[in-house]
Give the backbone structure.
Amino acid sequence: MGRGGPGGWTILDEPELHFGEDVLVPDLAGWRSAAAAALDWELAYFEVTPQWVCEVLSPSTARRDRILKLDVYHSNRIEWAWLVDPGEQTVEVYSWSESGWVRTQTATGSEPAALEPFAAVPLELALVWPPTKS
């Protein structure tokens, strides 16, 4: 992941994911190398389930992202889900469990954060948030 990082992931922005009849487009999705090898790059969509998804919340999408999309991601056994709220400057990290999502981390502010499943490379949160108005 990134230059000089541990690698092992393929991350795409806004990939169209097909889960049977459910079709979703997360803001970001990531596949470990072994799973990414099975991606069919000839199609305009992907049927291989990613191990990680990230949704960037906005007032118009937050409800859909938190309820509908997270439910579909969980039922398809995606291991990790992030909900990023630029307005609140928070990242919520959820891990899959049999009984439902478990929020395992919450990061806020501008300090670097080691977030699963990419904890080996801390995320510079200050670079993620929109500039503050002066």
Remarks:
- Residues 9-127 form a domain with the tt1808, chain A fold (CATH 3.90.1570.10).
- The chain has one domain: 9-127.
- The helical segments are 33-36, 62-75.
